[in-house]
Amino acid sequence: MSQKYHNQIEVAAEAFYIEEQSEPETDRFVFAYIITINNTGKAPARLTHRHWHITDANGKVEEVHGEGVIGKQPYLKPGESFQYSSGTILKTPVGAMQGYYDMACDDGSHFKATVEPFTLSVPGSLN
Fold first, then answer.
1. Across the strands, what pairs with 30?
2. Which residue in 3, 10, 50, 122 is a FRET match for 113, CA 20 to 30 A apart?
3. Total domains present in the chain
4. Closest-CA residue to 35 (of 91, 113, 111)
């Protein structure tokens, strides 16, 4: 069994604009996002750290690193999922996020679970 198949984590993201917390006149655009993490591999793994790159439409990149997510370090057995929500604030109505989670296996090995880029946008700003 290949290590890649043994340790497989799939990550899905969905973002939402939070109009009632935003203040466009002062360049404050608030976004929430829901992340779903699925263990589609053959071995359990624990999410130990998060690494985000958040980019606004001006090209400003904010890097966010920290332990776990929302104060937790979820342990996912094969077939299990974990979902959480969080948010970020941009100075532009459009941006993007991407990153990865550091995952630890029971045998002491580690791997990265990639979070593919996803868009943060005020409705109507991209069309």
1. 89
2. 122
3. 1
4. 113
